[in-house]
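Reopening: structure tokens for the FE3-S4 cluster complex, inputs below.
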Amino acid sequence: MQTFYVWTIGCQMNFADSWRLEEELRRLGYLEATQAEQADLVVLNTCVVRQNAEDKCIGRLTSLKGWKERHPERMLAVMGCFVGDVDALQKSYPFVDLFIRPSEYMELIHYLCDHDLLPVDRTALPAQVPVSMHVPISYGCDHHCTYCIVRIRRGRERSRPPAEIVGEITGLVERGVREVTLLGQNVDSYGRDLSPAVSLGDLLHAVHEIAGLARIRFLTSHPADMADSTIQAVASLPRVCPHFELPIQAGDDTILKRMGRGYTVAQYRALIARIRSLFPERDGLPGCSIATDVIVGFPGESEAQYEATYRLLQELRFDAVHVAAYSVRPGTPAALLPDDVPPVEKERRRRAIDDLQAQIVGEINARFVGQTVEILVEERHKGRWQGRTVTNKPVFFDDNGTDWRGRLARVRISWSGPWSMIGQVVDE
Ligand code: SAM
Ligand code: F3S
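Re-run output (same inputs, fresh job):
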């Protein structure tokens, strides 16, 4: 029996691609190995969004050099955003059999077929599907954020037709999936490249029709592209979760302009106000949740400009802030600017925002104590059931007697912290 091992780091898109690739390999008769070194086929699904991610990929790749030299008959493939200039990569890493561009995992399947490398025993062993799955709706990105290498590696935006997405989700629901997250670098421009053009709002309506699907989420949004029809679709469709991932990146207009983001702080603030106006508080709890991304230490970011970001986060009180220190990505326009904020200072800014956010979300979550929320139970984690609220808050509860996997549970919250909550089931 032939075995495979897929190593994945990076964004949800990479994890979604890896899951699909693993499904294809299982269908062809491959079995999953527990360690790369024991597998007949190893795939590294890579990320280069920041230097530390790229370093991890290079480390993993280099660690497999000896293994590959000892077992030349085994296969090593590299996919994901590490794969830029394939000729240069082949020269630097001659022991790699195949480089595959991000999301193009079917290339590997075709390669295996063309080279007669498929397992002889084709008994497919389908894996259990998770309760919640990510489904790509578009690939690539048409924005020009000056710090971003992802758009360069992933190319122009390509949307999948709605019928294909609905067909895939229907199949997943038949296998037990209860929640999907529609995925794209910029879901708000979904469907503009299709003929006839469709919108994210249209797609949400179509997916909402699928019987048996309990919840629908989507990410990532772009503040310059979010249509009011999307916000209204979320407000009017009960199974679409009122959770928004809206990266702001910086709280200063000059920095936003240099980042090429295409909106001002005032426009962003107005968008948040609009969203919050459509999701008023209910029973003392927020009607929606909003998460954001921030980069600190972008070239030329002064102390005052960083403080403007800090104050904006204090004012807007997000449910989550994914904060990263700026990392120079060769080949991007920002790489031509001097990387002039020292690493120690970038780290100070990053930590200060992390600390601020822990305090804010701690306060937001404290309001849940004593309240009852509905969660979709995903899995058992360290002896407890775990699920999320519609607003994407992780909730844990104890129940050794019932199998809650995939079910909706009403849980009364008895403890909250910044990153999770604990409660007891009140009824189903
Ligand atoms: N499409 C999303 C958007 O509208 O911003 C984000 C996609 S990006 C691949 C994911 C996150 O990584 C970004 O939101 C940004 O905060 C961070 N990021 C991207 N490039 C970066 C860089 N050069 N240095 C630090 N963080 C970076
Ligand atoms: Fe990158 Fe900006 Fe697109 S962060 S993926 S160019 S929206």
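The CA atoms of residues 6 and 18 lie 7 Å apart. The chain has 13 helices and 18 strands. Marking as resolved unless the reporter disagrees.
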